[in-house]
Amino acid sequence: MHDGNVTRAAQTFVPLTASAVLVNKVGLHARPSVKLTQCAKGFAAKIELALAAGGPWTDAKSPVKVMRVKAPQGATLHFRVTGSDAKAALAAVLALVHDGFGEA
Amino acid sequence: MSSSSSGNVGIVIVSHSPKIAEGAADMVRQMVGSAVPLAWTGGDVDGGLGTNVAGILAAIETAWSPAGVAILVDLGGAETNSEMAVEMLAEDRRARVVVCNAPVVEGAVIAATESSGGSPLAAVKRSAEEFYA
After folding, report:
1. Distance from CA of B130 to the nearest CA of A (A)
2. Hey, what domains does chain A have and what are their CATH numbers?
3. Residues of B recognised as catalytic
4. Digits of tens for pLDDT over chain B (133 positions)?
5. The complex's ipTM?
6. CB B130 to CB A37 under 8 A?
7. C-alpha distances in angstroms, B44 versus A11, A77, B25, B55, B133?
């Protein structure tokens, strides 16, 4: 019946992308990584980040992987978000980066 | 040091040095916040460097959560004493306590981060162990 189409529509979200410059002094070190992953985990969407628009993409819900990106201050963080709440998730992670993760 | 504000997985830090255990717990509290039950223990019964089973059992009790408890340890005795403490738990609790194969400081912060998002015990352990992956 129509179930097939509904299922497909629910599973194939177009990824949303956006970027933001890291303004906080330490870059994406331990504490900001924890804040970012905590924020990301609040959403169902798949959230990935990268230092370039073409990737390689890192799971933004994994604090270990996010720390390994070692993004410094001034780096541009690219986000790729896929899922039903992608819009809200993208807005939340971008706000966090713009806000310098609440740090100076 | 404890918090039981949620059903999140509890974190127990076991080090030979009470200073290391307490310091690692401080890092967890400051970096991750207070949404995770947390306890630490370190030192032998005479106050020297070492670990003791009674202290570990008390820490598990303090950090207890229905979602389970993940233990982060430093060296040899911390691990064997933690395993001994787990074996001494009541049977219904035993299956909900795991010792993570992860560095104690980093593992504690990462495990707590994972727990603070409401992840189950297996995910908390897996995330902490990513350091050695």
Report:
1. 7
2. 14-102 (3.30.1340.10)
3. 16
4. 444 446 999 999 999 999 999 999 999 999 999 999 999 999 999 989 999 999 999 999 999 999 999 999 999 899 999 999 999 999 999 999 999 999 999 999 999 999 998 899 999 999 999 887 6
5. 0.73
6. no
7. 54, 47, 18, 9, 31
